[in-house]
Amino acid sequence: MLTLVFKDILVQKNRLWLIVFYGVFMHIALYSLGDIGAYGGAAVGITYIFVLGACALDDKNRSEILLNSLPISRHSLVTAKYLTSLWFLALGLVVSTLAGTVAHFAGLDRGLVNLGTLAVIVFTGLLFISLYYPIYFLFGYLKARYYNTLLFIAALFVPALSATKVSGVGLPAWLGYFLEWFNRSQEAMALGFLGAGLLFVIISLLISIKFYQEREFA
Amino acid sequence: MEPILEVKGLRKSFGDFTLKDISFSLPRGFIMGLIGPNGSGKSTTIKLIMNLLKKEAGEVRVCGLDTDRHVLAVKQKIGFVYDENHFYDELTALEMKRIVAPFYREWDEEAFNYYVDRFQLPVRKKIKALSKGNKMKFALTVALSHQAELIIMDEPTAGLDPVMRSELLEVLVELLQDERKGVLFSTHITTDLDKVADYITMINEGKVVFSVAKDTLQETCGLVKGGKSQLTPEIRDRLIGLREGSFGFEGLTTDRKQMEALLGERGVIERPTVEEIMVYLVRGYGNADISL
Fold first, then answer.
1. Whether complex ipTM tops 0.90
2. Are the Cβ atoms of B90 and A11 closer than 8 angstroms?
3. Same domain for B238 and B197
4. Is B276 part of a structural domain of the chain?
5. Separation of alpha carbons A97 and A122, rounded Å
6. Is A63 on the interface with B (CB under 8 A)?
7. pLDDT digit string (tens) for B231-264?
8. Does residue A218 fall inside a structural domain?
9. What range does the domain containing B61 cover?
């Protein structure tokens, strides 16, 4: 399965430099969205670009016919795609954190990343992965492209919007209390976001496997 | 010994096309040509064997193993070459090999290097920079490098020059010196099958027209030629894809002996090529009574 993850990275090796470019660019472009917006936009943006990049190359080369003719189970093919996206999310987080840290020490108005910010970003990344793949595995890359556009916009702005939500603005009272407790303990918040994100990913993975088992390659 | 490939009652529908009860069997040690006009169902049959499409009914066995129940074990035993390149254009042939090889339990690096040398493949070049012929050779190299028992090829020679086609056919004939192996070879270029095929299966409009040994086919069928005066109603009724000109007629018989008796000394019955058999059968399909 790791070979498949390696394959998704290798096929994009010529544009891996974009990771650094987007890391810096998003911090500049999303400057006004605050720390979570900039850190998250960069990390989730990188995940989005490389996850879709790997899927686009599979589609362009019609490689699903090759992969499904090899002795690889369909659930391994699906699971490998999820692992690939987790790898790019991790890479996006590292690059985004480094870019933000450099900006902070360069005297720009950018805070250092904290556990709460990281939790929101990871959650957003996991949410994007969870929402994208079932549609991709059901319809294939081309048919899912309009949906991709919506996800792209969400991938950029959800981290910033999440920050608003976490601050408790405009939420029902019960959720406000819950978030207040969350905000008091960064560890609890991080754990909560991470747990919820992972739960989404697992449910999404199971749905994707189910969809992909039924896919045909004409 | 069980056949290397056994297809029984395969059915699949797409819109207005239906593959109807496809059945044939390929013994070990032989090459089977799969022929038929465009859209007849050859590629669909191959995709069903490869589990790329879901069958509605029927059964496929490779080396005695059911392809639904033993998906991965079956794919270990199959080497495949498709009509198009499905490798990643962005990778070199060597990088592509590094990705594919770990999935095969019996990957044979020596065999890979042997075919790379034999075909003079530029493995350090990106796949997109390879010619069509080299892409096919690379696919064949991969197919022959993991001790596959069954080689499945879907139009591998389409668009290749005669030298490359001949090279490919040579490799297949050499491969079958190992009598445990078998080749299923779908093609439009039936002259290739005249050279190497042992069995021919013809599919038309989603149905198997025949599936027999090539020699039997060519002995049973005959290309009947004669003058206009020799075309009696009895002969006319028994000819498939009859063509009449101002001087004479031409048609196919699937019962050479019967036609010889009817024709006597008056006409000529020639041994047909696979292409002639296919062309006449497709032209006369519908009123042909084919029992070979």
1. no
2. yes
3. no
4. no
5. 12
6. yes
7. 888 888 888 888 888 888 889 998 888 888 887 7
8. no
9. 5-214
